[in-house]
Each structure stands twice: as structure tokens, then as C-alpha cells.
Amino acid sequence: MSFINKEIEDFAVQAFVKNEFKQIKKEDVLGKWAVFFFYPADFTFVCPTELEDLASKYEEFKEIDCEIYSISCDTHFVHKAWHDASETIRKINYPMLADPTGKLSRDFEVMIENEGIAERGSFIINPEGKIVAYEVIAGNVGRNADELFRRVQALQFVAKNGDLVCPAKWKPGAKTLKPGLELVGIL
């Protein structure tokens, strides 16, 4: 089953963001681009490398009107404890969503039921609340914030310029394609 164009479900969860607790709801996500970045757990090995990588690009994501939401099945209290204990995690300014019931992880079908943790899933959500790209990978391989950022930019471009498409490795300013019979099979 594909998640493309699936609208995200209603939700309300606690989050740790900018050294305070805050509730985040579906309504908070709507109206701008968003990345839901599921990871297995706080206080682990690969996860902090990914979260730090995202933190280093967070301002660039914000400049293109895209919010980052990291999500694990830990509580918001555990997110705060990790923040307080880790110099790496203190660099994070985006919301760290708490999913201790696994509702979000199940809604996005990344829950590993027998372990009570989430897979490494990245979901790009458009301003209407629909999933326009996603990737789920094995827990022992970290993701790349640069590639995730490039994907958001490409999706924003095609949303704005519906008659054009972005080829592989496209970045803003690079050549795009206009689908048509003359391009079929020649590139």
C-alpha cells in the first residue's frame, strides 16, 4: 500500500521543544511543509547522529517553510533528559514529539510491535497535510539530512510548477523537464 497523497490522521502529542513541553496537534502541522522523522529511541547509537545532522540544517528547512518533527516512542520527559545529558541533542531546536502509546508510529506504519519502537521512517507532508514522499530504512543505517532537504525542495518546486518535473539529483536552479512524448526513452 502506498502512502502517497494519504492525509495524516488527527493527533495530539506532547513534545519537547526549545527547553519546554508543548502539545503538538495535526492543526499545527497544516499550512506549511513538514518532515516527520521517526527514529527508534533516545539514548541510542545511530539516532543522535541523524538528529544532529537534521539540527545542522534546521535553519535551512525553516527558510523554505518546512518544519521538522522528530518522533520516537519515548516520552517528552525522556526527550528532555536526553537533551540535558547530551551535548549533541542540546543542538536540536525542532520539536521532538513523544509517541509513548505508539499512535503516530502505527498511523505511519513504522511501529515494530514486538520491540515497542519505531522504524527509521521519513515522511514529507505538504501544507494540506498529505504525505508526498516517504522512506523507511533498516534501523542500522542512518539517514542524510542533505538528501531529505533536496527532496523537500524538489517537491515544493513541482507543487508550484505542476507541469514540470525534477530529474535525479535536481537542486534549485538546475534544469527541469517538461513531460512530453519527445522525451520518452531518449534521456
UniProtKB/TrEMBL annotation:
Give the main location: cytoplasm
Single GO molecular function: NADH-dependent peroxiredoxin activity
Q: What is this protein called?
A: Alkyl hydroperoxide reductase C
Pfam families xref list: 1-cysPrx_C, AhpC-TSA
| Top-level taxon | Bacteria
Q: What is the lineage of its organism?
A: Bacteria, Bacillati, Bacillota, Clostridia, Lachnospirales
What this protein catalyses is: a hydroperoxide + NADH + H(+) = an alcohol + NAD(+) + H2O
A GO cellular component term found in this entry reads:
cytosol
Q: Where is the active site?
A: 47 (cysteine sulfenic acid (-soh) intermediate)
Q: What does this protein do?
A: Thiol-specific peroxidase that catalyzes the reduction of hydrogen peroxide and organic hydroperoxides to water and alcohols, respectively. Plays a role in cell protection against oxidative stress by detoxifying peroxides.
User: What EC number(s) is this enzyme filed under?
Assistant: 1.11.1.26
Its subcellular locations are: Cytoplasm
Family annotation (InterPro entries):
AhpC, AhpC/TSA, Peroxiredoxin, Peroxiredoxin_AhpC-typ, Peroxiredoxin_C, Thioredoxin-like_sf, Thioredoxin_domain
What's the subunit arrangement here?
Answer: Homodimer; disulfide-linked, upon oxidation. 5 homodimers assemble to form a ring-like decamer.
Q: Which family does it belong to?
A: Belongs to the peroxiredoxin family. AhpC/Prx1 subfamily.
* GO biological process terms, semicolon-separated: cell redox homeostasis; cellular response to stress; hydrogen peroxide catabolic process; response to oxidative stress
Stretches assigned to the Thioredoxin domain: 2-157
